[in-house]
Structure formats: structure tokens, C-alpha cells
């Protein structure tokens, strides 16, 4: 499905970057938002859009070929950096109907767009090695 994105987004270094508002409009017209954040990042805050696929960055290289090529795909993460790298990778691997959500879920929320939240899954801690949820679930990094 080719969407008309001519009047949306900003092309920088061959990659289309969309604002949250543009992404919502595109998703309302059939585009799919692909959230590449890890499970511990999506447990507390999720994008509230109709067409959403979760594909954690840690599984991306194994499963990117399972993404629909007949849909316009917009990639998202926390701030738009890992998703931009995913778009660059996909452009080199035969995908062309894709874009990046500039600013990720951080700018999405800052713009006042709807987010599905589970406050019990919010992460707290003094450093990344000590992160845990309100439920006590540890999310330690090494």
C-alpha cells in the first residue's frame, strides 16, 4: 500500500522523518507504526495508534524480513535514534516505503498525543544496574 507522503515529513540524508502528528495521520490512513523499543521500555508506555507492530531492536536483524512490505512503515523508539538506524538498514535491504518518527515517544508525549500507560511498569532506580518497576521487577543491565 503506497500512501501519499509527498506533503508530509522531512527528508534528511535519504530518510523521511515524520512528526508525531504526521505519523498519526499516516497511521489513520493505513500506515503501520513499528516500535523497536525493548519490552522493558514498552511495558510502561505504548503508542496509542491503530496499526502497531512491536519488534524489539534486539530481535530486529532476525525478524525484519517478516515486516509487511505492502504497508507504509514508520519506525519508532524512545527518541528517534535507533529507529533511524533501523530505517537506514532496511533501505539497504530492499525496503523503500518507510520512514522514521522523529523524537520517538518522548516527543510524542511532549506533543500531548495519546499514550497507553501502566504506571506499575515505570522504571525507577539510581543507575541502570538497579532499575526496577513499582511491582519490584528488576531490569538490571551489565
Would you mind describing this structure in some detail?
The structure is a single chain. The protein has 142 residues and is of the alpha/beta class. It has a single domain, classed as Oxidized Rhodanese, domain 1 (3-Layer(aba) Sandwich), CATH 3.40.250. It is 25% helix and 20% strand. The chain contains five helices and eight strands; from the N terminus they run ββαβαββαβαβαβ. It has a six-stranded mixed β-sheet with strand order 1-2-7-6-3-5. The mean pLDDT is 85.
Q: Main β-sheet, in a few words?
A: 6 strands, mixed
Number of domains: 1
Series of H and E elements: EEHEHEEHEHEHE
Average pLDDT metric: 85
CATH H level, superfamily name: Rhodanese-like domain
Over the alpha carbons, how many angstroms does the gyration radius reach?
A: 15 Å
Q: Can you give the helix content as a percent range?
A: 25-40%
In short:
With 142 residues, this protein is α/β, with parallel strands linked by helices. It contains 5 helices and 8 strands. The N and C termini lie far apart (42 Å).
What are its keywords?
142 residues; alpha/beta; 6-stranded mixed β-sheet; 5 helices; 8 strands; globular
Layout of SSEs?
Blueprint: E1 10-12, E2 15-18, H1 20-28, E3 32-35, H2 39-42, E4 45-47, E5 52-54, H3 60-63, E6 73-76, H4 81-92, E7 98-101, H5 104-110, E8 115-117
Parallel strand pairs: 2-7, 3-5, 3-6, 6-7
Antiparallel strand pairs: 1-2, 4-8
Amino acid at each position: 500500500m503506497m500512501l501519499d507522503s509527498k506533503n508530509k515529513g522531512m527528508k534528511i540524508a535519504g530518510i523521511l522523518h515524520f512528526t508525531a502528528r504526521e505519523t498519526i495521520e499516516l497511521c489513520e490512513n493505513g500506515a503501520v507504526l513499528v516500535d523497536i523499543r525493548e519490552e522493558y521500555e514498552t511495558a510502561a508506555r505504548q503508542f496509542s495508534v491503530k496499526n502497531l507492530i512491536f519488534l524489539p531492536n534486539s530481535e530486529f536483524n532476525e525478524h525484519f524480513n517478516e515486516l509487511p512490505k505492502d504497508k507504509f512503515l514508520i519506525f519508532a523508539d524512545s527518541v528517534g535514534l535507533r529507529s533511524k538506524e533501523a530505517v537506514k538498514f532496511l533501505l539497504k535491504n530492499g525496503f523503500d516505503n518507510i520512514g522514521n518518527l522523529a523524537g520517538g515517544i518522548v516527543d510524542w508525549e511532549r506533543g500531548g498525543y495519546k499514550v497507553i500507560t501502566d504506571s506499575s511498569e515505570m522504571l525507577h532506580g539510581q543507575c541502570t544496574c538497579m532499575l526496577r518497576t513499582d511491582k519490584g521487577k528488576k531490569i538490571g543491565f551489565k
